[in-house]
Write a structure and sequence with these properties.
globular, 6 strands, 27% helix, alpha+beta, 6-stranded mixed sheet, 34% strand
Length: 137
């Protein structure tokens, strides 16, 4: 990963997003060629030079639907750069019914907790946080 933002900056953004009514976004990192090649071993996508962002709207989604996972948003660059598994998912958007592509990064921690970060491909070389949650076995 290149140009990775500091964890404290992400955590501050998350705190502010939880009480905000706007939809600002924060750049987290860029996927470099080495990481893109690792991802390509799992899924047929070329993600080299893709940016990863979070928006206030989807931070609030995690807060409202997966509150216990909110703190893990600060770890998204770490989860992406050291994932254990990655999948691609194609789903219809519930509101627009348009097909969207998602990249889902899976990271297993020492306590056997598995976190999934679901990023939406915005079709402009940008992956944006859709949700983050604990995998149920």
């Amino acid at each position: 990963m290149i140009n990775m933002i500091d964890k404290s900056v992400i955590c501050t953004f998350v705190e502010k997003a939880c009480i905000s009514s706007t939809n600002k976004e924060l750049y987290l990192c860029e996927i470099d060629i080495k990481l893109a090649q690792k991802i390509k071993k799992f899924i047929p996508l070329t993600l080299n030079s893709y940016e990863v962002i979070i928006t206030e709207e989807y931070v609030r989604h995690v807060k409202n639907r997966h509150k216990e996972d909110l703190e893990f948003i600060c770890l998204i660059p770490e989860i992406i750069s050291s994932f254990d598994k990655v999948n691609k998912s194609i789903e219809a958007n519930r509101r627009t019914k348009k097909t969207e592509i998602f990249v889902i990064f899976e990271k297993k921690y020492k306590d056997n907790t598995v976190k999934l970060v679901k990023l939406r491909d915005l079709n402009k070389r940008v992956l944006s946080l859709k949700t983050l949650f604990k995998k149920i076995k």
